[in-house]
Amino acid sequence: MPIPMYPVPSQDAYGQQCPHSPQRITPKYIDCSMAIPSLRPILDASPLSDAYTLYKAFKGIGCDKKVLLNIVTHRTCYHREQIKREYLRMYGKSLIQRTESELRDPLERVVVSLLYSGADLDAYTLRKATKGLGTDESALMHILCTRSSFQISKIKESYRNLFGRSLQDHITSDTSGSFKKILLCLLNEPRDQSNFADPAIAAQQVSEIYSRCSVKMKAPENLIPIFCKTNYNQLRLTFEKFQSAQGKTIYRYVKEFFEGDYERTLMTICNYVINPFHYFSKHLKLGIINGDINQVIRVVCTRCEIDLTNILNDYKIIFGTDAATDIKNAFELQHRETVVALLMLIGQQ
Asked: SMART domains of this UniProt entry (predicted)?
């Protein structure tokens, strides 16, 4: 099995996994067994007391957002699950529904993301990506390209349980072409979970990638099985052999021969397989540069209990700036309360 990232308290199903095997880590790649979360929880807090405090925060006109944020950003996902159960038991109402009735995006998205956990959080993120006018293609590829086959199976279960419709139905209706085909492959065809990397298979895959690109085949999705079903160690070896044989990185080749959301999905897989911390730090930076606070929320909320400290350190090395400062400068004017929440999750407050 791949090295597990920082374990979440709910060990039953959904610990995020890193694509790096202990059998093949070189200095070029980061050892994800050293993943460090950024969230600073209060471990001895009482779920019963927290549920009561939140009830008082919601009572009356408006909501005491400071109290709400101090609780949800300083509790583990396990603790937040207990708070939800206590709140429902004591007051007969869903804490998530109460939150949605009191807050508006983007702050609502932060708090509700924290009130979900594991597969439910990813299912919620994907539902937000497909709900309403337009589709957030970046969110779809971000979640589906960085989750294991086991995690995706749990996401599909959660999605149907939470929203009463299959995730495949929404993706099928909201996407098209090669982009739809690669997402459906990630969704329905499990990736090889072995750690074995065979140089002969790598050579064969290099030949397939090169030949299919060089003749500009009319069906670029023929590359999908290689990118979506091959185990991470094999993919990494294939990418290395490709660069040695062709004198070009796999990134350059993908950009040269493909375009649009399909090209972005292939690039997401490449980036995540080669170095997940680099991938997430660059994804965070793009959200900041493009003024996409939802993208920033997605990275922070899904990684704060796994490896966000590593991502933030990587961000500083790559870009020479502090991510917390960049988030504050980019969004504080329009979304002050959301920025406060994000800084809490980053460990700044």
From this structure: ANX
Fold of the CATH domain 199-274: Annexin V; domain 1 (1.10.220)
pLDDT of residue 134: 76
**Is residue 192 packed enough to be buried (19+ CB in 10 Å), middle (13-18) or exposed (0-12)?**
middle
Per the CB < 8 A criterion, the answer to whether 73 and 114 are in contact is: yes
Q: What pLDDT, in 10s, does the model give residues 293-314?
A: 999 999 999 999 999 999 999 9
H/E element, 125: helix 118-130
Radius of gyration of the chain measured on its C-alpha atoms:
21
Q: How far apart are alpha carbons 324 and 124 in whole angstroms?
A: 25
Instruction: Say if domain 276-346 classifies as CATH 1.10.220.10.
Output: yes
Q: Write the DSSP assignment of 210-224 as a string of letters.
A: HHHHHTT-S-GGGGH
Taking residues 87-93, what's their average pLDDT?
Answer: 96
On whether the CB atoms of residues 216 and 179 are closer than 8 A, the answer is no
**Each residue's pLDDT tens digit, 125-147:** 999 998 876 789 999 999 999 99
Q: What is the pLDDT of residue 28?
A: 38
56 has which bridge partners?
Answer: none
